[in-house]
Amino acid sequence: MNMNIAEIAKAEEDIIRKYMGQISKMLSPTKQESEELVRRAAFLVRHNYVKIIDYDYKLHKALFVVQDASLATVTLNLKDHSLNCSCAMKESLCRHRVAALFALYQYIDSLSNWLEQFRSRAQQEQMTLFKEERTPENWLRFVQNVYKRNLYHQQQMNPYLLDGIFNDMMEQIRKQRPLEREWQPLFDVFTHVALLSHTWKHLSLANTEAAQSFYRRFIQDEIERLEVNVLAMSKKSRLFAFDPFYNSLKEMSHYFLLNQGGYVENRIEIYLLIWNHIFTNKRDREVELEKLSTARQYEDDLSIPYMKSIFLVMLDQTEALQPYLDEIEAKDLLSWIELARTAGLNQQEAVRKKIIETIIPFMGTFIQEYLAPPHRMSFVKHFDEERQGVELSEELEETLFAAYGKYGLQPYSQFLIRKKRFDDWSALHQLYPTSLAFLEICGLKTVVEERPSVLLSLYHSLIMEEINQKSRQHYKSAVRLMKKMKAVAKKSGKHEFWNQYVTTVRQNYKRMRALQEEIEKGNLML
Question: pTM (2 decimals)?
Fold first, then answer.
């Protein structure tokens, strides 16, 4: 029999619309299982997996075959209003029944519009529930719905779009922020962590260095924003009504650390941000340590012994920390730096000092083998700030700065100035030539005041670098440097040396007319 499904749908339009109304009432768009059922049914229809194979005009009975994981047969009796399926779900509504109705409905009205109305109703119902009943479950469901509408289906996403999408989701969430000021910091932290946890799975899909680098910047930006909210939350008094949210936040942070994948250092940083500032109660930390000790499922990139060592520091059980320190490896340095920070936040200065002294011998290997060159400068700056306040032996200081290499010029320069090792200061900047502006950041003014004579060789190397560029602009820069060298020569009482130096430069470059002109105009002789 030649069947025209469009004609069948038109002939049974009233009954089909009635069925669709019943589906809309039976399924709650705020429930995950209902949303999943509708989404899968729509998927089956849009991919043409629903076929009508028979229709009895007298009995008004339609027979459908739905090609799912296993073949299902759906019988729709439009006369006695029965809808049956051959799948295991005999009594409850299944996706095959819904897909069969969708297949007919799309010939009398827009299925896309119906789905859009269903989802918008979910948002409206969620907002009503969200405002009327303030519970962690509602907040989590609300964040999940925002995520599903904006990011859930974007599996193959351009990394550069993530920042904009995430900010847009945060803005949607922020619009529902409680009016009470005491609730706002909790809402900001709770929803931010929940949304980050949902978004994290998309970050692990990055398969290129460029994408991973972009995602790392995105994560670091979000950590900085989260830190602001966490610190604001930690300063607020805790109401009894907050307890369920705090308990849920503990569970979220635990799941986020153990079960999300990739970027383990960032996961630890977010986790510790919460546990260092919000959950400072001894009992809370003891319970979390027990949960970590008994954890059976967690990502391969996470070291449970290391995480336990963090809580040993938090709980002032530092005598048990030494076995963990003995097992430090260069590849784990970022995690141990975070532990040193945790020790500082918990006023464990002796432990902080011990950790920093233990990891310094591994610093050179870590920088050279485990850090990409673009990240080395920022890492050195971060670690040098982190170690401030820890008195190191001169031997360890030298080991640390040798590991820094050219990425630690500024802190090493400041160290040499503190030790009044001005000859070494000058030699360092000849080994790693930079610019006059950077030399000033590194303490040039102090060296000029304390030991100007050590700068003569340094200025000479800078002057030669400019002259060798062989352009009028570089000759002008060389003369400006010569004027500064003249000042330190005068301050050092080396008048004769300086005049001989200028004469020698003029003789060596007498064929360079432009340079000779600039030197003449500079009036360099003493």
Answer: 0.59
